[in-house]
Specification:
Elements lengths: L3 H6 L19 E8 L3 E9 L2 E7 L10 E11 L7 E3 L7 E13 L14 H10 L1 E8 L3 E8 L11 E6 L24 H7 L19 H31 L1
Antiparallel strand pairs: 1-2, 1-6, 2-3, 3-4, 4-9, 5-6, 6-7, 7-8, 8-9
This protein binds manganese (II) ion.
The site of manganese (II) ion has 6 residues, from β2.
Length: 251
């Protein structure tokens, strides 16, 4: 049954997330949510087959074709999740603050390029590409634009769960060399930062620097990537946090 895993993982009397409703009408929206959970990550979701096909991207998407961003496929989410921004309470699955980092529409591309260019594809082609593990699509968001591929990794890396994909920008007019996801921070719905969303929600935990209680990562290659991300995040977020605290004290 669709959305069964989504439903099983959540306590809907506690979380403000939307209920597990399957949509009948076909849409082609996408959303990228920045999610300050146990590990900060970006959730990349494509509306397909009445649900949002979802991947967690630790480093976030990139417009640089040289970047191959690890994307771990997670359970399908209901379509109404696409504008969810707020705080998932502690002791709930995915507890932490969620920002709508980008929204827009997407279209499937042809499985193979024609004269070096990808042409618009069909719904059936998209379903087949997803099943095969090589989905090509074009995004028209506020931040993300152009052609991308989501490619399933078939390698037998130690610690692999079999849900690892790579999100890769294709070469086109929208590519940006050395793309820095943090340079495009902020909610596209409300312009708020993660700290502001957490504060607005009245969360009492926003000032405490959440202890880095990390589950042990079995795969060394993944642990290394996450450690680098953590360090970068710590360096960047500490000054920001101080300024928010100061502003609050003045009031
Ligand atoms: Mn998430």
């Amino acid at each position: 049954m669709p959305l069964e895993e989504y439903k099983r993982k959540r306590k809907f009397e506690q979380t403000p997330e939307p209920p597990p409703k399957l949509e009948s009408k076909k849409g082609h929206r996408f959303v990228v949510q920045k999610h300050d959970a146990t590990r900060l990550h970006y959730d990349f979701r494509l509306e397909m087959e009445g649900v949002l096909k979802s991947w967690a991207v630790p480093k976030g998407p990139s417009l640089d074709p040289a970047d191959k961003r690890l994307a771990m496929q997670v359970e399908d989410h209901p379509v109404s999740y696409f504008d969810f921004e707020g705080t998932i309470p502690e002791d709930n699955y995915g507890a932490g603050t969620v920002m709508v980092w980008d929204v827009g529409t997407w279209q499937p591309l042809s499985p193979e390029p024609v004269d070096g260019k990808y042409l618009p594809g069909t719904e059936a082609e998209a379903a087949a590409m997803l099943a095969k593990g090589d989905l090509k699509f074009r995004l028209d968001g506020k931040k993300l634009k152009g052609d991308f591929a989501m490619i399933k990794m078939h390698g037998r890396r130690p610690g692999s769960k079999g849900n690892e994909w790579l999100l890769i920008k294709k070469h086109d007019d929208h590519e940006i060399e050395g793309y820095d996801v943090d340079a495009f921070d902020g909610s596209v719905l409300t312009k708020r930062s993660l700290d502001q969303i957490a504060t607005d929600a009245g969360s009492s935990e926003w000032t405490s620097s959440r202890p880095a209680s990390r589950g042990r990562l079995k795969a060394a290659w993944l642990a290394d990537a996450v450690a680098k991300l953590d360090k970068k995040r710590l360096d960047e977020r500490n000054p920001a946090k101080k300024s928010v605290v100061k502003k609050k004290l003045k009031k």
